[in-house]
Amino acid sequence: MWNSLSRRGMLELAGLGLGGVALETLLTGERIRAGDSVVKGHGLRPKPPHFRPRAKSVILMMQNGAPSQMDLFDPKPELSRRDGQFHVEKVETFQKGSENNRLAGTPFTFRKYGKCGMDFSDQVPHLASLADQWCMVRSMHTHHNNHTEALVIFTTGKFLHGRPTLGSWVSYALGTENQNLPAFVVLRDPKAYNNNGTRLWENGWLPALYRGTEFASAAGRPPVLNLRPARSLPEGLQGDNLTLLAELNKSYLARHPQESELEARIVNYELAARMQLAAGDVADISQETEATRRLYGLDNEVTASYGMRCLLARRLVEAGVRFVQVLQPGHQPWDTHKDTKGKLPEIARQVDLPSAGLVKDLQQRGLLDETLVIWGGEFGRLPVSQNGTGRDHNRNAFTLLFAGGGMKQGFTWGATDDFGYRAVENRVSVNDLHATMLHQLGLDHEQVTWPHAGRDDTLTDPSVTNATVVEEILS
User: Which CATH number belongs to the domain containing residue 421 in this structure?
Assistant: First the structure.
């Protein structure tokens, strides 16, 4: 064989061989780092934070579709006074129908609530009743005015698909306090996905162990699909099968210690086995009182579906789950391109009472101080009319609500211009939000890293985004 090789062929083979050795060395290094930091029996075990945390868990109440800030949280008297007039500044639009640039005042009434005098619209009276609990940030802004990209930015920090989401980063950094449940759980509408599907809870290039796990919230359905065998087995057989599988896996792993992918798979299987009991228990609300059910609106068909997800969110953090993502009813119901006056009250009625009920329940159970609740959408709405009755997307200003988790209470931060179009005072980016959330969990956002694409990547990527912790909203 060697006698038939030319010098060029010999060099080509040698070069490829050396390249293969180098590649294998790099991949082995990646696998070792993955194994050391993710599995080795410590993938979801509680991990120490960088410093004393103010919160142990997060509940993200994602309002897909973008709630209108000037119709719910950010009153603009000047906008209402100039209703129907041309706006002096040409606004950035996304869809057709706003070209005439005519200002549109809110059809709803605002008043001040609580001792703090926080402004709320009459469309969210239950959220308003908690004014002295909320930290309201009116100066949020983001980088894109389409739902798909803005949702990815909100959950990953950048608009490129394939990055780890918030819950995945938190799960990786802190693990979970309940080894029988996932660290990151997603509660979506059982009848509809959002327009991004599962992208909002993917693990990206973090190990699959940190991906969000969907829990069903519809009555009569098991909380996790395909968790139990499709057909019934004789008593004890399932346990024997799992024991044998574990022994075989561990035996193989002992002979191939560098196969961290297998070890991660073993961890997932073992978690699935434990979840067969724990997931059913946490989803069983039969012991909840009638008062608690009413608090979440389970006695009303308008609020029952979203209320169930909010109640399950409380039960999950109570059970030690680290990050719970609660999604809104329907596809993207806050997307009021037309008929703001008719459509906005419909979705507000579905989420207002259950959202407030969750905060009240956490508070009365002593869980609010250690749970960070975040309520809001991916961007805001424009101050000009779209087709005479609606509002188009606005990436330049929106409002978020925070409760618990060491945030200031009864406090409003930031401001928009006179028409609610642009955040102008104490601006807060989505990346600043992420840095602040991690800080409240006791994590330095610059130190939560994972090797990716030749560098240690982070959720906030501060060298690019300039993300900083918003100290002014922390108690």
Answer: 3.40.720.10
